[in-house]
Amino acid sequence: MKITGLSAQKKSKGVNVSIDGEYAFSIKHSNTITEKGLYKDKQIDEQEIIDILITDVGNIFKERTIVLISKRLRSEFEIKRYLSKGLAKYFSKYSHYFGENSDNYKNKLIEEVIDYLKNKNYIDDNKFAKFWIENRIISNKRSLNSIRSELFQKGVQNDIINKLIDNIDSQVELETCKKIAEKKWQKINEPDEFKKKQKLFTYLSSKGFSWDTIQESIRHLCIT
Prior knowledge:
Blueprint: E1 3-8, E2 15-19, E3 22-27, H1 32-35, H2 46-71, H3 76-93, H4 95-98, H5 102-119, H6 125-139, H7 144-153, H8 158-166, H9 170-187, H10 193-206, H11 211-220
Antiparallel strand pairs: 1-2, 2-3
């Protein structure tokens, strides 16, 4: 097989690649042609086509992921999920090249992109967990148990979660609970004070606060 055409796309910066006189695939990233040494009349085989497609989509998703992380730090699990979803569409589009090895190629590329991002310090679950905890505490909207659950759902390892949360002063969570209790107390429309306390207790409990923390917060409101 031979590359017979490299033509710029009219509505994007991509390049259409023709092989043996027919359109074969598109290259979307500007670095790919240079990296793979592509030129008109170059002889090419099917494995080289696969390598070109993987290089191109890898370049694209490295940049897209960096943009995503620049908006908010992400856990490794979140990035893997993002890549898996995005790459699935691409590998489906060119399934006639990847064949039955499509999933293997995709999974290998995901690990390659993850390694690249880790080496560039864009992915660090310890740094992400610190960011997440600080953000949640500052917002005064989450108990430590809730934060712990959120981090677990984002794929952060338990040892990282436990180490960071166990180092937080319990007074910090108490102050958070007090602020939430104060706001909620004003919004509970219940004339019976006992029932109002019960509703507040139930609400704070649903937020993940412990019995002791809730009791102390209620005492702070002088309603016990």
